[in-house]
Structure formats: structure tokens, C-alpha cells
Amino acid sequence: MRTLAPNRCASLADGVLRSERLPVSDLVLTIWGKPVNWKMDFLNGDAPFLTPEDCQSYWDCYQQLKILGISQDTDIIVPKMRDCNGRFVHSKYENPKDVFRTPYGLTGGPVFWKNEHSLDGFVLPKRWTAILRTGDCPTSIFRDKVTGKVAIAHCSRNSLLYWNDSSKPVSIVDRVMDYFLSQDVSLQNLDVWITCGIEAEHFPHPVDHPIHGQKNQRMLAYLHEAKMTSCIVGDWAKGQLHLPRIITHQCTNHGLPAEQIHSDEDTLKTFGDESLWSHAEYSLGKCPIDGRNGIIIENR
Description:
- By secondary structure, this protein is an alpha/beta fold.
- The protein has 6 helices and 16 strands.
- It has helices at about 50-65, 155-160, 170-180, 215-225, 245-250, 280-285; strands at about 1-5, 15-20, 25-30, 75, 90, 100-105, 110-115, 120-125, 130-135, 140-145, 150-155, 190-195, 230-235, 240, 260-265, 295-300.
- The chain has a 7-stranded mixed sheet with strand order 1-15-12-10-11-8-5. It has a 7-stranded mixed sheet with strand order 2-3-16-9-4-7-6, with no helix packed on it.
- A hairpin with a 5-residue loop joins strand 2 (about 15-20) and strand 3 (about 25-30).
């Protein structure tokens, strides 16, 4: 796994930590943190723009996107990922509107497209933009160099290790990799970028937790059996999960060469970085606002 160099872009706008074209691609990745809160609450209701505040939030969001050169004609996917269920969705016609069916927009501004049912991964076609609203969960971007196909994955703990009724957990990474392999993509041409997540030492899952101890023990036992002990940092009983390593292991388990996986885990850590929002910090009372970072991916 290769490390992405830091690229702090405060000169572009306050809170922009990275904004650059990813190597050998048409993808532009922007990481936008504090003070802007990308929670975008105006998208949360069943009906759009119920209040004047919703309308104002929409225009505020658009003004920020204009700084990046995103125009009013842009279609923007803003996925609902609340359930962290490892679900990957794509249209056989590669039309996002088959999946993201609810448009939110006002005259003179861009259209934000939202899905009805929660998901963790999707295909991002050319000339579309996506905004992922994240607190601590890494985002992974997959791109085939030959076809230009792009998939985006929200990589929370539950998205990577989701148990339903089976003895083996489901992973959003496995489902994305299966998608590319079903498209006859050569793994030699597939690149993965992992960005912006919580570091392991601030993401414990202790086996003696009074509520989640049994569930944590099951998860850690699975990682041990799957030869993924390097994904647990420090004392096994503390269960400090290293999410980028889990993502990397699941990718290489499909045969993807590790040198084609790129990560900024050493430079963009949500917990403790005054420039980034962290849900874990909010949960511990270290931040009064449960804000979200904007992970903005443009497929130009």
C-alpha cells in the first residue's frame, strides 16, 4: 500500500485540506472539513426544502461548490449511507438516476440526487460528481485505468464487517471487487485510493465492553481466523481496528496488487485533527457539533 502525500489547500477555501486530480485519471478528489459542516440536513426529509432554512442551506452549499468550479448544470450524487449495510448498487445501464431517484434542486442551482434505500457503494459515471458526508469512516475510490469505470465505497466498520444471518461477514469492498471482476476488468489496471478516516488508537472495540463485548469478541475472533490480525493495533483485547488495513486486506484477497492501493491514513486522521469533523470526538463530548466532512469526487 502506498501513502498519498499531504496536500493542504487552505488557500483555495477555508477548510479545504486536499483538492487534486488523482494520478492517471479524470478524477478530482477534494476533502473539505471545518468550519464547513457538510451534513446537508436539507436532504434528510422526505420532501425537499420544507423551510426557508433548507433553501438557505442549499444555496450555502452551492456557493462552496462553485469555489471548486462545480456549475449549476452538474448532477451530484449525495448517497444516504445511514445503515452501513455493505450494500453496493449499480444500474446495468450505468444511469445513476436508476438508483438515485430523488432530485433536490432549485432553479439556478445544481441537482442533488438521493437514494431511497441506504447503501454503501455505487458506480460514478463520467461527468457526475459525488459528495460523501463522513465523520470517521474512510472513503475508498476504485478506478479501472482502461475502461475508466469508477466505484465509490463508504467503508465504515459495519460496511466492511457486516453480519446478517451468515457466519461470515459481508463487506462493501468484496462487493465492489466482485463488480469489477464481473466486468472482466484486469486487476493490473485497477487502482484504489483510501482517504480520510479515524486512526486505530481512537477506534477501540474492547472485548469486556458492558454492552458490545460479545459482539466485539466475535468480530475480533473472525479477524484472527481470517489472518487479519495486523488490522488490530496493540492489545488484541482492546480491539483497536485499523480500517485502511482491513480495506487493503480485502482488496488483496481478491488478487489486487498492494502497490495499486494508495492511502493518506498518515496525514488525514479525523480524530484529534482540528481541521476535520469526527463523530467519535462528538460522542465523547470533545466537540459540541456532530459535523460531517465533505468527500467530493468529480469524475470529469
